[in-house]
Design brief:
- The radius of gyration is 22 Å and the shape is globular.
- The protein has 409 residues and is an alpha/beta fold.
- The protein contains 19 helices and 14 strands.
- A 5-stranded parallel sheet has the order 2-1-3-6-7, with helices on both faces. Strands 9-10-11-8-12 form a 5-stranded parallel sheet.
- The longest helix has 19 residues.
Length: 409
């Protein structure tokens, strides 16, 4: 069932860990069993070989599974995560699903159910792609028009948008629609690169291989300042190919705070393509959900034939802070949970059941209060993020992450 799969198991309980290790190896998997969060961070961030999935307990002796996942997300795109949680950790698991984690299962569980969920997670791994366009809304069509316009030019392009909005898809479409399409398309994702200097400037780095192709630098705001100035020098000397970059919505503030070189900003933003948040494009969220359903559902076609009208309405009303990644994660989990022939709201949003009869979950209450405090601090500081972070007693990067989550950036 799991022949050849490489799995990292993060579990400190000897009995649970030993049982899972034994069964996974019987199923043919190669398993690395770790018992601490800190050791897991390094093993997953810089693995000796490909990792197909991570099975992780929410409660760990030196942290939590949530901290492990969010730490990895700051510097890389982690493998699919299947979280194990008790009833008290469901809120954490739901937050992780919103952030792009693949699935969670609650204790106690039947081993056959666990293996089925793991198999589904592996089946919907990195090989799956998003549809080739961004949506059907007027906003999505405007992005398509900007892509077509950019494809006719050789000017540097900056693509802006939050997580899971398809910035890499936009960059590739610019290249494929341009006269450079026969030349290489090279991508350097600085959220994943451990050594950005080698990836960009090394002897076998992207700038040396570019020729007349397109170089796409994703998460460009993570480039260290010293390398930003070096990239400016490369641009001023003249690139044979074309530069396309992508970042989140906070670049101007990074420039103002001294975290990003204005010289590089000016040079790479000669053309800009902003991608609106998915929560502001409900028709695109519904469209994407339907497109992904027909990609993921064939193996369950005998039991799940479509998406219910109430489920589509719930998708329309959701904010989708995780963008397309959240749509995909929720759909994959929903397909594994649903008992009927149509996907229902409870399959896509299981956390909403806690809010029935007018009762909000504690997580929802905390989020509302936290958002209000962030807004108040930003207003009092005149929009200065560093000052607002000091008022709130948190790091500036933490405040940025929360502002993106609550749609305040």
């Amino acid at each position: 069932m799991l022949d050849g799969c490489r799995i990292v198991l993060v579990e400190d309980d000897e009995i649970m860990g030993g049982s899972l290790l034994q069964r996974l190896e019987l199923e043919g998997a190669q398993v690395l069993w770790l018992k601490q969060m800190n050791r897991a961070v390094g093993a997953i961030r810089t693995p000796q070989s490909r990792i197909d999935a991570v099975i992780c307990d929410i409660a760990l002796p030196d942290g939590t599974g949530e901290e492990l996942f969010t730490t990895l997300c700051r510097t890389t795109t982690p493998p699919p995560f299947l979280f194990i949680t008790g009833q008290g950790g469901i809120e954490q698991a739901v937050r992780l699903i919103k952030s792009g984690a693949a699935d969670y299962i609650t204790k106690p569980f039947d081993m056959s159910v666990f293996l089925d969920r793991l198999a589904q997670l592996l089946a919907h791994g990195e090989a799956q792609e998003f549809p080739p366009v961004l949506g059907v809304s007027a906003a999505a069509q405007q992005v398509e028009a900007l892509i077509a316009h950019a494809a006719k030019s050789d000017a540097p392009v900056l693509i802006r948008g939050g997580p899971g909005l398809g910035k890499d898809l936009v960059a590739r479409r610019i290249h494929e629609m341009s006269e450079r399409r026969a030349a290489p398309f090279l991508e350097v994702n600085l959220a994943r690169e451990g050594t950005p200097e080698d990836a960009l400037f090394g002897e076998s780095g992207a700038l040396r291989q570019l020729c007349e192709g397109t170089l796409f630098v994703n998460a460009v705001s993570r480039l260290p300042l010293s390398l930003q100035h070096r990239l400016v020098e490369e641009i001023e000397r003249g690139l044979d190919g074309r530069l396309v970059t992508a970042c989140g919505p906070d670049l101007e503030r990074l420039v103002q705070d001294g975290g990003f070189a204005p010289e590089l900003h000016y040079r790479m933003a000669q053309m800009e393509i902003p991608i609106p948040p998915l929560g502001t494009r409900p028709e695109d969220a519904v469209w994407l959900l339907e497109q992904l359903f027909y990609m993921f559902a064939p193996e369950k076609a005998s039991s799940v034939t479509g998406i219910g009208a109430l489920c589509l309405e719930a998708a329309r009303d959701h904010d989708w802070p995780g963008g397309g990644r959240e749509v995909r994660a929720r759909l994959v989990r929903g397909l594994s949970l649903t008992q009927g022939d149509l996907l229902q709201p409870a399959d896509l949003f299981p956390e909403r059941q806690a809010g029935e009869a007018g009762i909000k979950s504690l997580a929802e209450v905390r989020e509302v209060a936290e958002r209000a405090q962030i807004i108040a601090a930003l207003e009092r500081s005149g929009g200065q993020v560093g000052a607002a972070a000091r008022m709130l007693g948190i790091a500036r990067t933490t405040l940025w992450e929360k502002m993106q989550r609550y749609g305040l950036s």
